What does this fold into?
Amino acid sequence: MEESVKVAVRVRPFNQREIDRNAKCIISMDGQKTTIVDPDGQKEPKTFSFDYSYWSHDEFETDSDGVMTPTSSKYADQKRVFEDLGRGVLQNAFDGFNTSLFAYGQTG
It folds into this structure.
């Protein structure tokens, strides 16, 4: 049984509104580290560490059904997120333990 709290962050692709406005991604990820840079360059970048940092902003292709398929190992698809986070929660529930998965954020 996995007993610890895990914290993950995932960067999603830009939505159409962001694309239309020529938005710039100010997030970068390296392993478990996520860095946010000031788009105006006035402040130092801030780096945070998480159990999982998932890059889903780009490096994928979208097929005719709307499914995003990785074009590099950097891209985190739904399967990878489920394997890292969901499978343990689901197994604990099947084993009769109380479980919880909390997701928060803009979905696009």
